[in-house]
Specification:
Layout: E1 8-13, H1 16-32, E2 37-41, H2 44-48, E3 51-55, H3 72-89, E4 93-97, H4 100-112, E5 117-120, H5 132-139, E6 142-145, H6 148-156, E7 161-163, H7 168-171, H8 178-185, E8 193-197, H9 202-222, E9 227-232, H10 238-246, E10 255-259, H11 262-268, E11 271-275, H12 278-285, E12 290-294, H13 298-307, H14 315-320, E13 327-329, H15 335-347, H16 349-365, H17 371-385
Parallel strand pairs: 1-2, 1-4, 2-3, 4-5, 5-6, 6-7, 8-9, 8-11, 9-10, 11-12, 12-13
């Protein structure tokens, strides 16, 4: 299909993970329709994939209601810019990627302009605000589901839906072995590897890294051979992390901070301490035993308790439909508790193998590689029909 047949397509991604998945989709769109013009909101990866970026909020993501207040002016400016482009250019379709609070509002504006809406990585309506599915039925021309159980949810509500698989399958090095990962990280001998992933947002890091560091000290005291590797997210300032590291006791174990080595750390790890989020699904697909933790403000916690309708927050547990990995939340997050759960994974082979068996089942449920191409074909089909 020639790009001229479709005109422009707009995309909207507001966080780092959406930028990654948006880039996968955009590369496939460009391959299928080389002359296609792409415009919208995203980050560096989408820009590199050929998108004309109108706004980039991906490096300043926050979590929770109270934490988002300072971000509102920039997001409002981005919203106005996208709406203006919708009115001026009338793209053949708009692709919304996750980021529901922003994107659902943008969807209303698109429909008013007669622009078809494709939602790739749709809102987690199965977890909260199920009433929103009626709104999705009014706004979405097509939903591209990334979890298999989403298909029936949308079909039952009369929403056109296609299960394309999870886009992580296109970007993860699924054949990376623990041995090769350890070689790349220069981990020698039989040293156990503990990975620390305190999150991709400043608020997550400031809340979760201190108890993770305390847990590392406790784990090192039990076995001095253990090596601690911290995966630094691109959206996190290295100086923030290094400042928290400097505040530790002189007897604390060495923590190696690594950039752009996320997948190697996960594949090599004997245990992870990890913030809840997309990274937990990455870790599961790479077979990394993990302990999940999370903390938000009291206001955000109170709102979440009213809205969330499932018993878990981590994606491995949600996809499995059962408690596969331990979740330590809110006031329960402490160095002592994190260390105790990680120690169990480090010394109890059955505990780690149980997680890995569940991770194998998760991988089988999420589809096959080629997610970006399947999603791109669906987007082009909607655009051609408009």
């Amino acid at each position: 299909m020639a790009g001229s047949e479709c005109g422009a397509i707009m995309l909207s991604a507001g966080e780092a993970s959406g930028d990654v998945h948006g880039a996968t989709l955009c590369l496939a769109l460009k391959e299928l329709a080389p002359g296609l013009r792409l415009v919208g909101m995203g980050g560096a990866r989408m820009a590199a994939a050929g998108v004309e970026i109108v706004a980039d909020p991906t490096r300043h993501a926050v979590v929770g209601a109270s934490e988002a207040v300072n971000r509102l002016p920039a997001l409002f400016a981005a919203y106005r810019g996208l709406v203006r482009r919708l009115r001026e250019e009338r793209p053949r379709a708009i692709v919304l990627i996750d980021f529901p609070e922003f994107n659902m509002r943008l969807a209303r504006q698109a429909r008013r302009q007669g622009v078809p809406v494709v939602y790739f990585i749709p809102p987690q309506l199965w977890a909260w605000r199920k009433g929103r599915i009626r709104l999705m039925a009014r706004l979405a021309s097509r939903v591209l589901a990334v979890f298999p159980f989403e298909r029936s949810l949308y079909e039952d509500a009369g929403v056109p839906v296609e299960f394309v698989g999870h886009p992580l399958l296109d970007v993860l090095p699924l054949d990376l072995t623990p041995g090769e990962a350890r070689r790349r990280l220069r981990v020698t001998g039989e040293a156990p590897v503990v990975g620390l992933f305190p999150g991709s947002r400043r608020e997550e890091v400031t809340r979760l890294l201190p108890p993770m560091l305390e847990a590392a000290s406790r784990l090192a005291a039990r076995d001095g051979r253990r090596r601690f590797l911290l995966g630094l997210a691109p959206s996190v300032d290295r100086q923030l992390v290094e400042g928290l590291l400097r505040g530790r006791a002189s007897s604390a174990p060495a923590i190696e901070v690594l950039e752009e080595r996320t997948h190697e750390i996960m594949a090599a790890a004997d245990a992870l301490l990890i913030a809840s989020g997309t990274a937990t699904l990455e870790a599961a697909l790479l077979g990394a035993p993990m302990v999940v933790c999370y903390q938000v403000s009291r206001l955000t916690e109170a709102i979440s308790r009213l809205l969330i309708r499932i018993p878990w927050i981590s994606l491995p547990n949600i996809v499995s439909g059962r408690a596969v990995v331990p979740e330590i939340l809110q006031q329960e997050v402490s160095g002592e508790r994190l260390a105790a759960e990680a120690e169990r994974l480090l010394v109890d082979r059955e505990a780690t193998e149980a997680q890995r068996r569940a991770f194998g089942e998760i991988r089988g449920r999420l589809g096959e590689r080629g997610v970006g191409r399947r999603a791109a074909l669906a987007v082009l089909q909607v655009a051609r029909a408009s």
